[in-house]
Amino acid sequence: MELTTLWFLIVGVMLIGYFVLDGFDFGVGMSLPFLGKDDTDRRLLINTIGPVWDLNETWLIVAGASLFAAFPEWYATMFSGFYLALLLILVALILRGVSFEYRHQGKGRNWTRWFDQFIFWGSVLPPLLWGVAFANLVQGVPIAPLEGGGWIYEGTLLTLLNPYGLLGGLTMLLITFTHGLVFVALKTVGDMRKRARALATKVGIAAIVAGAAFLIWTIVQHLESDTLWLIVTCAVVAAVALIGAWVANLRGREGWAFTGNAVAIAFALLTIFMALFPNLMHSSIDPAYSMSIEGAASSQKTLELMTWVAVFTLPLVLAYQAWTYWVFRKRLSRDVIPAGAH
């Protein structure tokens, strides 16, 4: 396997890790106004992700750094073209992170309510806008090559807000919301667990419908693709896993439901990556203007050095993250939330 293809897969795996792990963080944040009857409930919800949410976000940082080093042209074109959408994601992530740390400072109800709103909207916007962005990468965006090398994005934010892009955003939003609700049910006991399961059942139906529509639309757009069989296979696995997760949640098997949602997110993203391959960005102006993996990659020496770094560091990161989840594996209840706790 060529190093360019290997790093396309590595970046994909890192992005999958981010959306699977930070995905349930987003879902928990979205659940605050629906499951939080009082401040103790809301503190309980936040504490389910308290020890891990910042660790989960590091996957985005690592993926961004890898993207910059391995495919600088992809990084430059996407971050300049999608600038406003990515800026909104960054602001939302900052507000959400600050709110986790400052909402419990005890400065009154209005103070807490404001930060709860920041957590909610900071959890809604990122998956919605990420879904819009990835859907547009698959559908094609108005990019064209520059004379001196590189590519330029010739659209605006409104260009991204097309029906297929919005469906991709809605699908990502609903799947992460369901993922987070199942995680709440997995991490809590009593009434909170029951209410999270019930809401996950309702939201899960909407996620299945939206996900099916998005995957079918994606397949139809790529009927002539050389990787059609991979696209269809990944889409089928994602659909089966999502339906299986819904059934598992309905039967009270939160562990299997969480695993199923994780698999569904992973293979939905794999569907997108397979629809992109062997390009990084499809051009809606002219297919000849599309950005190929080889054309956007760094030098061979850079990729070789990055490969050795990844071989030694990724196992350590995975081991540390697994240890963290093992340490904080116990379920939580309202009884463990003392007055004034985070």
Automatic annotation (TrEMBL):
It comes from the Bacteria. Keywords: Cell membrane, Electron transport, Heme, Iron, Membrane, Metal-binding, Transmembrane, Transmembrane helix, Transport. It is found in: Cell membrane. InterPro entries: Cyt-d_oxidase_su2. It is a multi-pass membrane protein. The chain crosses the membrane at residues 6-32, 74-98, 118-144, 164-186, 198-221, 227-248, 255-277, 305-328. PANTHER family: CYTOCHROME BD-I UBIQUINOL OXIDASE SUBUNIT 2 (PTHR43141:SF5), CYTOCHROME BD2 SUBUNIT II (PTHR43141). Belongs to the cytochrome ubiquinol oxidase subunit 2 family. This is Cytochrome d ubiquinol oxidase subunit II. It comes from Leucobacter chromiireducens subsp. chromiireducens. The lineage of its organism: Bacteria, Bacillati, Actinomycetota, Actinomycetes, Micrococcales.
